[in-house]
Amino acid sequence: MGPLAGLKVLDLSHVMAGPTCALMLADMGADVIKVEKIPGGDDVRKQVPPKVGDEPASFLMMNRNKRGLALDLKKPGGKRVLERLVRGADVLIENYAPGTMDKLGFGWDVLKGLNPALVYCTVTGFGGTGPYAHRRGFDLVAQAMSGIMSFTGEGPGRAPVKCGAPLTDITAGILAAMGVLAAYTHRLKTGQGQRVDTSLFEAGIVHTYWQSAIAFATGVAPAAMGSAHPLSAPYQAFETADGWLVVGGANQNNWLRLVEALEAPELLAEPRFKENRDRITNLALLETTLAPYFRKRKTAEWLAIFDAKGLPCGPVNDVKQMHTDPQAIAREMVIEVDHATLGKVKTLGAPVKFSDTPGGVRRGAPLFGQHSREVLAEFGFSGAEIDALFTEEAVQGP
User: Is the entire prediction scored with pTM above 0.90?
Assistant: First the structure.
């Protein structure tokens, strides 16, 4: 089920950016075949601890909803298998180091010759063109070079800080999925496939929209501001009597709601806080002025008061608290899925909902080569041919 039901995707990617792209498509109903290298499989299988049973927790998260095929593309049999898979697929995703697919004999010219309707998606560190096209990329490097680490952290003069989440990996995967869907839409109109190319570097750059706008306008690169916002105030975290919360006084109406909720009409008489531009200009003073008000009550009390006023707010949850949040549960963002050997396994749900063609999580992550025989049979290999591929060790099973 799902809006992409019937779409056949070959996921040759590993670790996170490419697998995120394939995960998005799988959640929307695509049949995603995860093609893992022999030996060893996806490198994320080695990112342990922790494990769930014998399976790496990180692999379980990034590869649910996919079927697994273990393939050695350096063997003649492995190349024959991929050729046939490409002829019958709609999409191929890979995030190998630049030039790897060409070395394996499956560059874009070869792939489009095998299947002119193929949508071929590459996710690399810096993209397929430009002076850095040859470089390998990691999320850490992309966060640094895109500017993100310069405006993340507690404030000027402190050590550079990366976002705790692998921001550019995940964003590159989402951008790649968007690109795949756009290219597939074009194919439905014309019958022609094409190459989709995005990168971790570009994924980092798109997170600088506000900071780039400021730099273009002023000629000054914005610096780190803690949890504060460069264009709206107050829009940040405040310490309460027993923890932390965030509040979004992001426009004048919300500022007035906050003043009323804090029972602090005296703040309205302060000219340095009158309008948003004044509050941004005097942000340090605003923070120190508001801090004592927030420390008067506990987080839960403030959240109830702010919510009653219609003021955007929320607690600063840790990940386990997020997992038990009633909204996350109601939106099916924390679910259980069946795994071949582990039984029920917790995972995160599909973030996009559809009224008429619901997607969702249908299966757990595959064991190494779990569906090798099943997939080969679907693509027309006979039992004898499949046995020969296993004998050659071009293909492996669990």
Answer: yes
Q: Quick count: other Cβ atoms within 10 Å of Cβ 230?
A: 16
Query: Is the Cβ–Cβ distance between 146 and 138 less than 8 Å?
Result: no
Strand partners, 11: 34, 93
CATH of segment(s) 8-206+331-396: 3.40.50.10540
Residue 398, pLDDT score? 86
- Before 234, cis peptide (omega within 30)? yes
Determine the 3-state secondary structure of 348 from DSSP: strand
Bridge partner list, 336: 346
List, in sequence order, every residue forming a beta bridge with 27; answer none if it has no partner. none
CATH number assigned to the domain with residue range 244-315, chosen from the 4 options 1.10.132.80, 3.40.50.2300, 3.40.309.10, 3.30.1540.10 = 3.30.1540.10
Length of the chain in terms of residues written:
398
CA pair distance 264, 283, nearest whole angstrom: 18
Nearest Cα to Cα of residue 55 among 66, 68, 46:
46
**pLDDT value of residue 156:** 86
Closest-CA residue to 236 (of 165, 286, 274, 293): 286
Residue ranges of domains in the chain: 8-206+331-396, 244-315
Q: Rounded to an integer, what distance in angstroms lies between the CA atom of residue 40 and that of residue 46?
A: 9
Question: Which position has the token pair 């969702």?
Answer: 360
Flag whether pLDDT at 1 surpasses 90: no
Residues 10 and 92: beta-carbon distance below 8 Å: yes
CA-based nearest residue to 91, from 19, 175, 183: 183
DSSP annotation string for 303-314: HHHHHHHT--EE
In the chain, the largest separation of any two C-alpha atoms, in whole Å, equals 85
Q: Does residue 301 contact residue 313 with C-beta atoms inside 8 Å?
A: no
Q: Is 387 a catalytic residue?
A: no
Q: Do the Cβ atoms of 61 and 347 come closer than 8 Å?
A: yes
pLDDT band at 109 (very low <50, low <70, confident <90, very high): very high
- Within 10 angstroms of residue 343's Cβ, the number of other Cβ atoms is 10
Q: Which member of 27, 42, 139, 169 is catalytic?
A: 169
